[in-house]
Amino acid sequence: MEDLSRYNPAGSLLRRAQLRMLEILKIVDTICRQNNIPYWIEAGTLLGAVRHGGFIPWDDDLDISILRTDYARLRALLQEQLPKQYVLQDKKTDSGLPMIIAKVRDTKSFFQEDYSDKLKYTGIYIDIFPFEKIPCWKWKRFLDYIYGHSFRGIRNYADTKDTLLSYLVYPIAKCLVAITRFINKFIPTNIIAAEYGWTTTIKYDYNDVFPVKEIEFEGLKVFGPQCPHKILQTQYGDYMQIPPKEKRAIHTKRIEFYD
User: Fold this and answer.
1) How far apart are CA 46 and CA 232, in angstroms?
2) pTM of the prediction?
3) Chain centroid, CA 248 distance in Å
4) Among the four 25, 52, 187, 232, which has the fewest Cβ within 10 Å?
5) Which residues contact residue 259 at a Cβ distance below 8 angstroms, ignoring those fewer than 6 apart?
6) Coil vs helix vs strand at 184
7) Which of residues 22 and 166 earns the better pLDDT score?
């Protein structure tokens, strides 16, 4: 059997980054538990937990999700309770962030991304994906495009022509999202997905996620979805199959530590 530990041996920059992400997750997990805010590990993080018992050896990010209805409360708690070394990064706290999702960043490190030069905070991070109910998938895909694209445009992640158009489209798209969310309150559905504006091809049945349950990740008890195997199969197909070497991607080109 192939020894995958060569990707993140003890003491390597990648392994140190993974352990810093794990420290952030521990803090967020504690805050969520103390305040009865359900979350679940998501995407490659969930895959790593099931297939490797922790991080995918070559993975350099960590993803969790919560319901959008819980995000405002979690956001306030994170701003109040995060240790000084860490900071909440979202569209309100960092005008350079081109994403509608949130991150908790470490301030004593650097993690290079394609847009790092535009960010206020650039350290190692974990992602927080708000999820909401989606009665109409085609309408979501449409809103994801116009809302997400125009949002990135006004954050200067487009050429000049697209940026100018984004300033015209964004208020309309934002209004459509608000109206859609109001209407959705009255439409029964069990389908949830990442919030409007975040382009995704993945949607889940609410009952496959909730109630969340504990799962082991790097020796830590965290929360995962109720049906992790079903969710992973939906997202990855034969998820227990180790991908070929050319598909084992490390996203960043540079990691630095300042402590």
Assistant:
1) 8
2) 0.91
3) 19
4) 187
5) 108, 109
6) helix
7) 22
